[in-house]
Fold:
Amino acid sequence: MSKVQPPADYGDRQNRLATAINNSQLDAIALNAGPSLNYLTGLHFHLSERPVVGLFVPDTPPVIILPELEVGKLANLPYPVQPFAYGEDPDEWGATFRDGARAAQITEKRVGIEPRQIRVLEMSLLEAASGTTKFLPGEALIAELRMVKDEAELTDMRAAVAVAQNTLNNIIPGIKPGLSERELAADITVGLLRQGSDSEMPFSPIVASGPNSANPHAFPSDRRLVEGDMLIIDWGANVSGYFSDLTRTFAVGEVEGEMERIAQIVLEANSAARDIAGPGVPAEAVDRAARKVIEAAGYGEYFMHRTGHGLGLEGHEAPYIRDGNALELAPGMTFTIEPGIYIPGRGGVRIEDDVVITTDGLESLSDLPRELRVLGV
Ligand code: CO
Structure:
């Protein structure tokens, strides 16, 4: 795929992290292999049995502790780093971590970590290497940076949405009674790869038909589509590490009247949330706008999840669009809007879009038709 893309400015991201550290109670941030390390350095490591840790200290080039076989990834970086590499013998790792901790001067300090990401493996090596240093939750610092996407990130997210939408458009004509959820999920997965998704999918596609569509997190089964089914497809692509996450609901042939009605209500809830979202609007107000529509129609108890979640290098990240989250939305924030109604034993509807806050409102990155489409007849 050809695309004109502004390069990511990792030096700028590291500088902004340094400012955030200086304005906090922390002296440094320690990250293992994962999305935040990728965000700050552009370095992509698989989480494996060999630990990789980045130590970020203001006014110091990042310290990267890594296996020798990964050192090649540090060649030609557009910013300085201090690499500390270890060999295959785990008994060496402690000494390498001590050297790295000394270079970063993180003994007797307060170091932020991401509790959801770092493992006991990395923590115990860091603790053994850094004397009386205290390790404290620091994920908010990085979430604040990652929440607001720059142009390079938005370019990738737009591409990830396009890959997902093109994939579904190619598959829709083949959806008909007799096809199983598993077969449809396989077609979507292969289609995403052919359309240009990176091989690490954001998540496995959800294909839920008939009564299964009443389960928001169903796994594709061997159930075959029959006329009268509701069909929920929740799928997404990965372009350069950035994810899309979309859901559309279909009717297989003619469905009962109440299913058509809840599809219309969810469509209105999705629109209400997109209409209200904008800079300065609290995340909880977006949730409330969608929920109000569904409650007013009498289906409040059947909408049992939040309205959306942040989206970017992770499938679920800040900002969370839920009741009680007073965070004010700001330009560049990307998240999903995905209200749903699920009636146990019968069927469900979810309509999920990926959106970005702009200077004067909201732009939906996804534009597939949201109305209930009748397929397979
Ligand atoms: Co989602």
